[in-house]
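Journal club prep, notes for RB
We'll compare a predicted complex against what the paper describes. Inputs for the 3,4-dihydroxyphenylalanine case:
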Amino acid sequence: MNEKIAQIEKKMLKDLEEVKDLKSLEKVRIAYLGKKSMLAELMKSIKDLSPEKKREYGPLVNALRASMQDKIAQKNDYFEDNFNALSEWIDVTAPGQRVTRGHLHPLTIVQRDIEKIFTTMGFVIADGPEIETEFFNFDAVNMPDNHPARDMQDTFWIHAEKNVRHVLRTHTSNVQVRYMQEHTPPFRMIVPGRVFRQEATDASHEHTFHQFETLVVGKSISVANFLHIAESFFSQFFHAEIKIRVRPSYFPFVEPGFEFDISCTNCEGSGCSTCQRTGWIEVGGAGMVHQNVFLAAGYEKNKYTGFAWGFGLERLAMMRYKIDDIRHFHGGDIRFATQF
Ligand code: DAH
């Protein structure tokens, strides 16, 4: 009997400890003090005991009941004082705490838009290393050692390995021959990516910036294909009808090479301050892939034709969002970054 009393008490104390609210407290009360509880049974069984035993255990069982009632009442008071709906007053009209959400950097937004437009036109997105060998960055794209064209790009040379010179890639054109070595034409691909130049920085020059390269190779690719793809890309990107103009220029990896302009996104070609009253905005370089580049990739000479173009992502973002200084992109100023 003694043991049973101790057992019930121990179990109840443990259950009481786990009680979290008034509702579960009521369950404990019913389980231990209710009509069908173990305590009720215990009391019933006392009736059948001899008078001496009754005298011995009666007070013990009564004491147990009293202590259980007491403990449950204490717990009840505690919940009523602290968690009762009436005592817990909440001002539901008070403003909440605003959670600031992160968001994409403007360059990421622009890059994703570009990728989306090109993938819907059937282009593949290719990638290449930022630390590049001299071969893929220069020689493979028809810029051999001592070629004066190398001076057009202010290069960060690094010595990663003995006997092989490496550079922080100066343009995304480094992926052209890498991709060609792995794929057989026809193909169309773009390479968005980070590039590096040893620049004296100013509002339009930065040592670390982004370009994206476009390369289409096949049996009879022509300048007309370039014009069409470029027009459709820029029109989709700026949500306007954009025209393309090409001017002869020189890049070692294309022949013929040209620079190309788009009709001004601000005045639609009539002339304004954005386009210096010319109606055109210069955006990038392009041309028909030089046969030497195909040779570097291991293709047979004159078997394929293709066009390539390349230009700066920052420039597109600056035009779209009317940003006047390229240094804002990596400046880390939160007031700039949170505007997009
Ligand atoms: N790689 C050149 C640069 O960074 C840009 C360029 C010009 C890329 C003409 C091309 C191209 O693919 O055909 O200045």
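Talking point for the session: The chain has eleven helices and ten strands.
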